[in-house]
């Protein structure tokens, strides 16, 4: 449960006389100017009273500032603040500016006082009370470097009655206190520590009043490596008449002065296109993966789409263009590895298949799809309808609704909301078009080694709730406002109410109920998860609490990431005795439990490195001796036969590791002889205890190189 924000809470007794008084107030002609703000016109989700300009004003975050600006726009006949879509555009523009712009709201608004509730039927309509909202926020709310510049942009001063002051004080939360600033001047700041910072802006009005606003800002890191180069890519092949663009950030391995041994990493669905080098590097360097790959001798080429929400086929042609440019930059005998994260797996898959189908050479030796939605993605349909229903009152809901309507989302989602709602849970028609385009080029590339690394459970682990369970509860009602937004999970194929919504602002009431059938129970299926419900719960709602009854939902089902031809969300993946042959991949890496979507973990970081190293050219400083390793039966129950071969004699080790990287058993340690031999592993650890069912890695190392094979022990 969340505490209510600080500030007065309006509690009005439901008396008919008070209602007449408020109706009279709201219907009275506007006095002063058309920019007068009547706040009773909107559902005040921002908690505007907290940002009064007084000394006890709360610190606002960027999302709440966005909501506040959107509410002021909708409560004004002649808006002076931007709405949600314009703010999103400003935020995207701010991502590439040298200085982070500070956006300020200094506004007068009118709102009835609680005393109106005590009015009798004969009482005249009370005059509205004028209040002040003073709030600011940096349009980029975090940094990955110690040195930051801010700028108070005159174009981002939004007011209906206060001119931009020519002198203010600004505290950047760097421990140096307040400093005097002027509009348009750069404020250079150096942070000494990471963490949340509280910024403060204040100025004195002509009347002598001091107005104070506070904002949050996060220092994620004090340093982030700078790319050695940035390639600006425009696809040579348009899709539907439009050529996509992207930036490719190049980070060379130590000792390299040019691209030598590249691994191309393709980004996924970036909801608001806000991720750039710093954000992408931070994600791929979890568990030190990016730094480890660099130490292994790999040059990283990180592709960042200009608009990741465009059609997947369009962005795939950017991937194809990048492949051709990378090939032109490296030695003609060199090859490259490729990792496509989430939607990036679909874009790279189509790019490679298209190139093969159209005789466009590529030298991709290994293609890894990382938790990619080959069989579709899931955002609970009830949440989609929640977002659509509240989009008229919530800036963030409006932005998310807009992204759900973008082509890439419509192509990936297994169920997509409709307007008006229908009784069947079904994908958008764009999905069928995309699948047909994929089929036309062969569906999957045939030349590289194809690998699927997934975050979803292979052991049928659910997300902690049953089909048809309620996921979100939001109910609030008082004299002025009422809101209901309840969400349920899909029930397996059978009819189920998934959304019940109601908004009342005085006498204006909007309701919607959605009942659907015809879909498997994807919401709670094994898969890489997304915390959509927990994120909703974390929002401080001034009117009631949004309660997540369950925090996470399946986002990329395990069966989807493995491209299994089944509509059973709970297919027994690890129980399939011939799993690889049922997929289009050469190798599969599946955890026992569910993990966050595209989360780099200790175990899959090892998987990535092993796969990229197995067929890499030029990684080892000298020619490695030939090693071969295979395991059968795989999966196994009691014992597995490990067959190994070495081209030369010398010291060798054969070891078994668990998912956590812990050594489970040493099967061979000493001098290995040239040729082939077999060793039986009986499924026991070094203390002769039986190991539990799950995934293990058998590693053969000799003369400074190694080869790894995954084995699965069944129940």
TrEMBL record:
Domain DUF676, residue spans: 318-378
Gene3D superfamilies: 2.60.40.4070, alpha/beta hydrolase (3.40.50.1820)
InterPro entries registered for this protein in UniProt: AB_hydrolase_fold, DUF676_lipase-like
Pfam short name (any one): DUF676
Domain of life of the native organism: Bacteria
Name assigned to this protein: DUF676 domain-containing protein
Organism in which the protein naturally occurs: Eiseniibacteriota bacterium
Taxonomic lineage from the root: Bacteria, Candidatus Eiseniibacteriota
């Amino acid at each position: 449960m969340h505490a209510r924000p600080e500030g007065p809470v309006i509690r009005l007794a439901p008396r008919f006389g008070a209602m007449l008084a408020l109706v009279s107030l709201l219907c009275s002609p506007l006095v002063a100017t058309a920019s007068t703000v009547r706040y009773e016109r909107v559902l005040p989700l921002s908690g505007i009273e907290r940002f009064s300009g007084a000394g006890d004003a709360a610190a606002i975050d960027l999302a709440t500032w966005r909501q506040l600006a959107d509410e002021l726009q909708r409560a004004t006949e002649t808006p002076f603040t931007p709405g949600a879509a314009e703010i999103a555009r400003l935020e995207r523009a701010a991502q590439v500016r040298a200085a982070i712009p500070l956006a300020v709201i200094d506004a007068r608004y009118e709102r009835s006082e609680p005393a109106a509730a005590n009015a009798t039927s004969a009482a005249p309509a009370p005059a509205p009370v004028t209040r002040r909202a003073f709030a600011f926020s940096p349009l980029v709310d975090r940094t990955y470097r110690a040195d930051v510049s801010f700028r108070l942009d005159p174009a981002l001063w939004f007011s209906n009655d206060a001119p931009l002051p020519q002198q203010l004080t600004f505290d950047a939360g760097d421990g140096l206190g307040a400093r005097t600033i002027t509009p348009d001047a750069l404020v250079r700041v150096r942070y000494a520590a990471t963490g949340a910072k509280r910024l403060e802006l204040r100025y004195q009005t002509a009347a002598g009043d001091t107005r104070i606003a506070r904002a949050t800002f996060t220092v994620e890191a004090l340093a982030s490596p700078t790319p050695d180069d940035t390639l600006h890519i425009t696809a040579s092949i348009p899709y539907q008449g439009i050529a996509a663009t992207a930036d490719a950030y190049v980070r060379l391995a130590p000792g390299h002065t040019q691209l030598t041994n590249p691994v191309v990493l393709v980004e996924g669905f970036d909801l608001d296109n806000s991720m750039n080098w710093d954000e992408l590097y931070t994600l791929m360097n979890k568990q030190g993966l990016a730094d480890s790959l660099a130490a292994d001798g790999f040059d990283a080429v990180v592709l960042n789409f200009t608009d990741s929400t465009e059609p997947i086929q369009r962005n795939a042609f950017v991937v194809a263009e990048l492949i051709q440019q990378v090939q032109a930059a490296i030695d003609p005998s060199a090859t490259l590895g490729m990792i496509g994260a989430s939607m990036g797996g679909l874009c790279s898959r189509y790019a490679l298949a298209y190139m093969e189908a159209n005789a466009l050479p590529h030298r991709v030796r290994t293609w890894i799809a990382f938790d990619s939605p080959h069989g579709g993605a899931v955002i609970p349909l009830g949440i989609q309808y929640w977002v659509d229903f509240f989009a008229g009152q919530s800036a963030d809901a409006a932005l998310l609704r807009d992204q759900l309507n973008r082509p890439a989302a419509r192509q990936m989602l297994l169920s997509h909301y409709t307007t008006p709602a229908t009784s069947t849970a079904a994908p958008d028609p764009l999905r069928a078009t995309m699948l047909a385009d994929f089929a036309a080029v062969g569906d999957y590339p045939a030349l590289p080694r194809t690998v699927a690394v997934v975050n979803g459970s292979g052991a049928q682990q659910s997300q902690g709730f049953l089909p048809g369970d309620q996921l979100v509860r939001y109910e609030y009602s008082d004299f002025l406002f009422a809101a209901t937004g309840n969400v349920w999970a899909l029930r397996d194929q059978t009819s189920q109410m998934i959304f019940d919504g109601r908004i009342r602002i005085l006498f204006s009431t909007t309701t919607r109920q959605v009942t659907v059938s015809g879909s498997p129970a994807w919401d709670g299926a094994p898969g890489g998860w997304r915390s959509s419900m927990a994120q909703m719960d974390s929002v401080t709602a001034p009117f009631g609490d949004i309660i997540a009854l369950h925090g996470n939902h399946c986002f990329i089902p395990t069966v989807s990431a493995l491209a299994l031809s089944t509509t059973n969300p709970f297919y027994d993946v690890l129980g399939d005795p011939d799993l690889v042959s049922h997929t289009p991949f050469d190798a599969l890496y599946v955890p026992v439990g569910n993990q966050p979507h595209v989360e780099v973990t200790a175990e899959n970081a090892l998987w990535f490195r092993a796969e990229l190293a197995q067929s890499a050219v030029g990684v080892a400083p000298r020619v490695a001796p030939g090693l071969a390793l295979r395991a059968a039966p795989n999966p196994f129950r009691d014992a597995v036969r490990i067959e190994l071969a070495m081209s030369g004699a010398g010291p060798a080790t054969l070891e078994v590791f668990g998912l956590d990287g812990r050594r489970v058993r040493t099967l061979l340690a000493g001098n290995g002889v040239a040729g082939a031999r077999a060793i039986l592993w009986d499924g026991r650890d070094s203390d002769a205890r039986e190991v539990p069912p799950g995934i293990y890695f058998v590693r053969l190392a000799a003369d400074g190189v190694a080869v790894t094979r995954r084995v699965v022990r069944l129940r």
